Amino acid sequence: MSMTKKDFIKFADCLRKDLERREEVPGYPYYTVEIGDLADALSALNPRFKRDLWLSYLRGECGPNGGQRKTIKDVDAEVRGINNKIMDGVLNGKLNICDRCGYSTTNEEVDGTTLCESCKQALAFLNR
Predict the structure, then answer these.
(1) Burial of 30 by CB count in 10 Å (0-12 exposed, 13-18 middle, 19+ buried)?
(2) Is the sign of the CA dihedral 101, 107, 109, 111 positive or negative?
(3) What is the pTM of this model?
(4) Structurally, how many domains does the chain consist of?
C-alpha cells in the first residue's frame, strides 16, 4: 500500500515541528538529511506525489493543498466567529447547552435536562 496525501502531510508536519524545535532548543539533536533526497524517495512511493508542493509546504510557503497558509489570526478569528454564533444562539434561545457534555444543541429541555443527540443515544443505549 502506498502512502496517501494525508500521510505525506502528516510526515511534513512532523518534520516542520522537528525543525522548529531545533531553532528553539539549544543542543537539540540534529540529523542531517537531504530533504530533496527524502522528497525523491517519497515520490518513488507514490507516482502522484507532488514533490515541489510538498517541499513548499515543508518550508511553510503554502498550505497542504498549495493555497495560502492560515495564520494564527485567521484561525483565532474563525474560532471567535464560531463562539459568537454559539453564544448568540444560546442568548436568543435558539441553542441550548448539553448538560452532559457541554456542546451546543438545538434540543429542548426534557425533564429539567438538556441533552444533545449523541448523549441521548448514549443514555438510551446504557438504559436498555
Answers:
(1) exposed
(2) negative
(3) 0.46
(4) 2
